Give the backbone structure.
Amino acid sequence: MSNERGNWGSSVGFVLAAAGSAIGLGNLWKFPYLAGKNGGGAFVIVYLSLVVILGFSLMLGEMAIGRRGKSDAYGSYNNIKKGWGFVGMMGILCCFVIYSYYVVIAGWIVKYIGLFLSGGLNGDPVDYFSTFISSGTTPIVYSIIMVVATALIVLKGVSGGIEKASKIMMPTLFIFMLVIVVRSVTLPNAMDGIKYFLKPDFSLITPKVIIAALGQVFFSLSLGMGAMITYGSYLSPETKLVKSAFCIPVLDTIIALLAGLAILPAVFSFGLEPTAGPGLIFITLPKVFSAMPFGNVFGVIFFVLVLFAALTSTISLLEVVVSFVVDQFKLDRKKATVLVSALIALLVIPNSNSFGSMAELKVFFGMNFFDFLCYLTDNILLPAGGLLLCVFVGFVWDKEDLKNEVTNHGEVKFEMFSLWIVGVKYLGIQLLSLILLQAVGVQDEFLVYALGTIFAVQILCGRLEAKRGVKAV
Ligand code: TRP
C-alpha cells in the first residue's frame, strides 16, 4: 500500500523536501519585510521564541499524523479518528488557495531573473515594478510558467520528482544565499542594518508584533495546512520523527535569518528605508543592485535563489492537493496533477489582475480578490487549522498510540513527550485561539475573557481525561 503511494528514498531527501516546503517566499520575501516593518530585532526575537515554543511541537504533530494515517491530509486525520477528516480538508483547501496567489508572486521572480540577465534595471524601480505587475497578460504568463514547472516535477512522483528536485535546489539555494550575505554585510555601513535586524528593542514588542510573528511562524513552517502531514505520510517506519521535526524549523529559521542579513544591511548601506513592505525585494533591492559593482550578477544570483525557494514550496502546495485527489478519488497522479494545475491556472487570472484591472474591484468583503484570499488563508484557515491540530494532538488522538508513533514503538527515546503534549494542549491552544479571535475581530477587552473561558474548558477536558484513566501527561 505505502509503496503505491510513493516513499522517500532517504531521510536526508525527506528533510530537504520538507525544508524546501518550509523555506520559500515566506522566508525571503515576507520575513525581511515583516521584520523591517515591525521593529527589526524586536520582531526577530519574538519570532525565534515562537519557533522554539510552537514550531517544533506542531511540526512533530503533523509528521506523526501523516506517518500514522498513511494517507493525504484528509484521509490521515480520518484514519486516526473518524470524523476529523474535515481538519485535513480545511488544510487542503488552504494549500489550494495559497498556491493560487503564491504563484503570482513567484511569477514576478521569474521576470526579475530575466531582467537582471538582460542587463538590469535602468529607470525608476518603482515605475518598473508597478507597470509590470499591472500589465495584464505578461505577469499571468510568468505565473503560468511556474504552474507548469511545478506540475512537471510533481508529475514524476515523490522520490523521482519532489525529492530529486529538492536535492538539487536546496543546496544550491544555500550556497547562493551565502554569496549574497557575504556581499551584503561587507558593504560600507552594513553594520547599521545588522544592528537594526539583530538588536532587539524590547519596548517595540507589542501585541501586534506578537500576532504578526505568530502568523509568520505558521506560514513559514507550512504548518496547520496538511503539508507536513502529506510529506510525513511518505515516511518509512524507521525514520526518527523527533530528529526530522527538529531539523526543519532550524533550517527554515537559518534561511530566514540569512535572508534578513542578505537584505537589510544592503538596504541600510545605500541609505534606503527597510519599511517598504511587500515591495522590499522588488523595488528597494533592485536599487541596491543597480548601485553596486557587478550588481546584475548579484541580482541574478539573488533571484535564482528566491526562485528555487519558491519552487520547492509550490511543489509542496500542489502535492498536498494532488495527494488528496489521488488517495480519495483514486485518480492517477498524472491526471490529478494536470487537473489541479489547470484549476490553479484559471485562478491565477483574477489573482494577478488584482494588481491591475481588478485592483479596485473590492467586492470581497471590501477587499480585492488577491487580498481577500490572503486574508482568508492567513487569518482564518491557517490559525483555525493550527488550533484544530493542537486539539487533535493534545486531546483527541489516543496517547498510547501517539507515543508509539513518535517513538517508533519505544525504539527512539523522547523524554520530553509529556512536556510536548502539555505545550500543545495548553500553550498551543491558547496562542492559536488568540490569533483566531483577534482575526475574526473580537475586541481587545473581550480577549482576556474569551481566553479565560477557553482555559477553563481546557482544564475541564484535562480533568475528564484523567477520570477516563488517560495517563496524566
Ligand atoms: N512555507 C512556505 C514559505 O515560507 C509557504 C507555505 C505556506 C507553504 N503554506 C504552505 C508551502 C504549505 C507549502 C505547503 O514560503
